[in-house]
Amino acid sequence: MTTVFLHPPGIYDFRKRPVFIGAMSEAVPSTPVFEMYPMGFVSMAHYLERHGHRARIVNIALKMLNSEKFDAEKFIKRLNAEAFCIDLHWMAHLHGAIEIAKICKKFHPNTPVIFGGFTSTYYHDEILTKFSFIDYVLKGDSCEYPLLKLIENLNKTDKEDIPNLSWRKNNIVKSNPITNVPETVNFVIDPKFMLKLIIRDMDIDANLPYRSWLDEPTMPILTSKGCLYNCVNCGGSSECYKRIYNRKKPAFMEPDKVIEQLRLNEEYIKNPVFFLNDIRMGGKRYYEEVFKKIKKEKIDLPVVFELFSPLTEEFAVTLKSTFAHYNLEMSPEDASDDVRFCAGKNYTNEDVENSIEIALNNDCDKFDLFFMLGLGKQSKKSIYRTLDYIDSVIGKFKKFKNSGEREHKVYPFISPYAPTLDPGSIAFENPARYGYVVLHRTLEEHYNAFDRYSWKDFFNYRTENLSPDDIIDLTYDTAVKLSHIKRKHEMVDDRYVKNTEKQVEISRDVMKKVAQISKTGIGINDNEREINLLRDEINESMKSLIHKNRELNWPRNRKSLNVYVMNILGNILRRL
Ligand code: SF4
């Protein structure tokens, strides 16, 4: 029997319902369907297999995205599973996760349905109280061992000794403490294991982490779990880790494991490695040891690092001496220091500009700057000031090549934080203090909101200055204005600007139509032709506003995993 990991789409069934997801996924590699499954799926599946169990990953979201004909119900009905594991990590997956769980239980009433992830942890009690088709919640940030224990003890009545588990006993919700909190992160994601699953199931898209993975595979390295910082709207802040996931301090990946992961990436993925979280959180000794080993092993991959605090000369020099190519990412959120401080980030614009300066002086290939809109204390004025600031930063750091051509290494982005304030985050618990008003508190309220038609309905908050309508309007307005700024600096051409304007026009038009449906309560069967037409328009509107595929991606090596998989599949087919 197999433990089946199912990754749901954000909204089920986005192909049938006229639902307008808007710009929710602008800052992540997924499409608006949120088809990217969590890395934890691979580590848990691998862990189960290493302990003699069989596991399968099915990216339901991607299968739905890739084929109009894919029937999720029929597919799930045919599965023969020992247990279904469904991720509900971030709130964006709630609707899909609940619907997929219902389908699992409908066709397999005796097969346990297990939820996991941050959102599941925060709402574990409500999940088990209100949603009878979900049997277990595994809490915390590390569930490999608890899942193994659960799978091995599914038939036992008493499950008190399974760490991190919430469950029902005689209709009463029991919550075992979160005691499985490993002090190191030592799980290496092995692309060979993922390839093994693809080949064994003969189902490529079921196993892919996201749509473009074969063409543009990335294998991020999670060098740590936990955080040292307290951004108030983040469900993964230091305070949240302590209060909700029982992690008192961050855990780090041992340097040798980092090397092992990089070696695997070098062999199979070949593309840039994204170091998730700021490696400096482990301290100077930690990252110096990692970098020393990278040099010794002559690992030559382009890398991307996140900066949770300003860059120092000393770190930049170390990066320069270790990597031939590196990119950096920093998220100042807003150009107003006040808004940024209120968001929990304690650095100034001067610090941001110093960081860029240091990076560029130390051969950084690209410096991405992320700004957000929809934050507490922000106002329309502060958001437009942020655009002016972006304009000045691009101008300040553009360089001229010998040929006279402009060269840009600083890429600013502005995208909505919306539509949900992370449940459990510092601001969610104490909204007034940070300029927020929370509109939905319970999981059920969130589910009902996601069951509606438009991302405007999905908002679980407003700010003291901005309503959901304002945030949406600003999203479209700033997208156009930013494209004009980038054109002014010759970062993009006229076509780019026209595309953005067209995209915004389509989105605004779709918003109006969907609002009308929402108001009149028209059902999806009321006027199928109209609904189908609207669905086509919605699909058109789903193209990225910030052209992230072009601007967010990093330089690629030409030989991708696609070639590798095709070679393997070719070899297998030849042998059949
Ligand atoms: S957003 Fe802030 S709190 Fe959250 S992980 Fe990043 S640095 Fe940590």
TrEMBL record:
The keyword Transferase applies. Keywords: Iron, Iron-sulfur, Metal-binding, Methyltransferase, S-adenosyl-L-methionine, Transferase. One of its GO terms (molecular function) is metal ion binding. NCBIfam families: B12_SAM_Ta0216. It comes from Candidatus Altarchaeum hamiconexum. Residues 24-161 form the B12-binding domain. It comes from the Archaea. This is TIGR04190 family B12-binding domain/radical SAM domain protein. Its cofactor is [4Fe-4S] cluster. Pfam families: B12-binding, Radical_SAM.
